[in-house]
Amino acid sequence: MSWATAAGLALPEVMGGAQEGLAIHPNLRQAATTMRSGSALIVWRLAPAIEPIALLALAGTELRRGPYGSVSGKTLAFVTDTSVELRSWGNLDSVTELPARFLDSGGMDVAWSPEGRLLAVASCERLIIVDVEHGVHHEVPHEGDHYYFGDWASLPQFSPDGRRVGVANTMQGRWWHTMLTVAADGTIEYGFDYGPDGIPQAGGRNIPSAVAFTPDGRRVAIWVYRGAVERRNPSEYRGVVVVIDTTTGTLVWRRHIDNGTAGRPGEVYPAALCFTLDGASLAIGLDTGIIWLDANTGAPKTADTTIGAVNALACAHHTGMLAATKTGLHQLEHPPT
Predict the structure, then answer these.
(1) Which tens digit of pLDDT belongs to each residue from 265-317?
(2) Which InterPro entries match (predicted)?
(3) How far apart are CA 184 and CA 114, in angstroms?
(4) Which domain covers residue 59, as residue numbers?
(5) Which of 3, 71, 108, 146 has the maximum number of C-beta atoms within 10 A of its C-beta?
(6) Phi, psi of 159 (to 5 degrees)
(7) Which residues of 173-190 are buried (b: 16+ CB within 10 A; e: fewer)?
(8) Does some domain include residue 92?
(9) Are 189 and 210 within one domain?
């Protein structure tokens, strides 16, 4: 493939350019990222050094988010305002779309179950679980005036065992977290809502941008930014990370992130979250780099401000943790335990 002509990108632009979405190959030491609002798909070899090995121009003019991958599944998902595209790792040139009956227009977010068979599709006040192998879907119905999911944002994530889906929501500036249980066939049952007591809500737009489970699935972390705290201390506040128990719905810990914790001044930011595989540390990807927190207490460990703004994080046993940033794709070194 000619790097000079494919998607209009030269090799140096890819190596050091802004990477957007990120997914890790389920078996190989490879990863995929997107560039230029999702119009270009890059496949990377991760060893012995990180380098791009394939570049694919994706058709269409809509903003495309993704790729979204799973632990062991062979399919990647990409999201536009009007569609969910599916591409196989083995044949990235071929694309299929989820049937329109499964979708709402605008504001969709998706997440795969670990084995890559069930796809959670969240949109305005709605979440469905699609069994992509059998072409059926399941939904949590509304009960009267109770809405389980947000209108501004509804962000799903499967637990490592695939039995739960955590959904971070925003409705009219108020955020909360909903926990669902998922059966093997994809049917859904409501679990609980976590209302963030003690975290300012009024007068600000509180928007979750990331949900991450611990490797054992016992806790889930949510990043929320643009809160009311921002107005009181605009030069310092970056966002807040909240960790809750997935069984009881109780708060385990929370930590407001400021410039001091981040290691350098920056802005409020839709951060990425990822736990290390041993469950000891939580990585937060910000516009100024990575912050590492103790996963059990929320205490800061260290910060890395050398890799630039982080757009996505992902981790797997055969690759370690990766960061898609505005300066390329990077391998992250875990902090001391």
Answers:
(1) 888 889 999 999 999 999 999 999 999 999 999 999 999 999 999 999 999 99
(2) WD40/YVTN_repeat-like_dom_sf
(3) 12
(4) 1-74
(5) 108
(6) -75, 160
(7) bbbbbbbbebeeebebee
(8) no
(9) no
Strands 84-88 and 91-97, sheet pairing: antiparallel
175, β-bridge pairs:
170
Matching residue, tokens 């062979």:
74
Q: Are 264 and 238 in contact (CB under 8 A)?
A: no
Dihedral sign from CA coordinates of 182, 272, 62, 37: negative
Against a cut of 0.90, is the pTM above it?
yes
CA distance 67 to 115: 16
Query: Looking at the structure, do residues 187 and 240 belong to the same domain, yes or no?
Result: no
The tokens for 136 are 């059926």
Instruction: Let me know: does 324 contact 20? Beta carbons within 8 Å.
Output: yes
Token code pair at residue 30: 């490879």
Whether residue 220 sits in one domain with residue 191:
no
Query: How do residues 8-31 score in pLDDT, each as one tens digit?
Result: 777 778 889 999 999 999 999 999
